[in-house]
Automatic annotation (TrEMBL):
Keyword set, alphabetical order: Lyase, Metal-binding, Zinc
Classification lineage: Bacteria, Pseudomonadati, Pseudomonadota, Gammaproteobacteria, Lysobacterales
Domain of life where this protein originates: Bacteria
Stretches that traverse the bilayer: none
The UniProt record lists the keyword Zinc: yes
Family: Belongs to the Gfa family.
Name the UniProt record assigns to this protein: GFA family protein
Pfam hit, one: GFA
InterPro entries: CENP-V/GFA (IPR006913), Mss4-like_sf (IPR011057)
Domain CENP-V/GFA: 6-123
Length: 133
């Protein structure tokens, strides 16, 4: 049995990564910070830090959006890619934007979070559970 590998990159290809193993459940964050960062919602999967490997990351930049989280993006093309809790001892995972994978993910959206902050221009109608926080 071979272990799954998932590859991804930013829009310009300057940041490339591989994830070894299966991806976690998908979620969509509707908080105002994610909406401002992406222009809509942030659809992501969580993976163990040890499963994420960078093939290239010269243009990878980090923005500390709060005292708890930093967000990774390509400094060349601006693609939002990573959601990284800064307390690595408590959180052994990193969020990766589902849209940055270049091959099929096999991930279904299992929940919507921070729906109390969602934009007024769309409806959530996929049947996945919705959480105000």
């Amino acid at each position: 049995m071979t272990q799954a590998k998932h590859q991804g990159s930013c829009l310009c290809g300057s940041v490339k990564f591989t994830v070894d193993g299966e991806l976690g459940a998908g979620d969509m964050c509707h908080c105002q910070q994610c909406r401002l960062w992406t222009g809509h919602v942030y659809a992501s999967t969580e993976v163990k830090r040890s499963a994420l490997h960078f093939d290239s990351k010269e243009t990878l930049k980090w923005f500390e959006s709060s005292g708890k989280v930093r967000r990774g993006f390509c400094g060349a093309c601006g693609s939002p890619m990573f959601f990284d809790p800064m307390d690595h001892q408590q959180h052994d995972w990193i969020g990766i934007a589902l849209g940055s994978f270049t091959n099929a993910t096999g991930v279904d959206i299992e929940r919507h979070i921070f729906t109390a902050e969602k934009g007024d221009y769309y409806i959530i109608a996929d049947g996945a559970p919705q959480h105000d926080y």
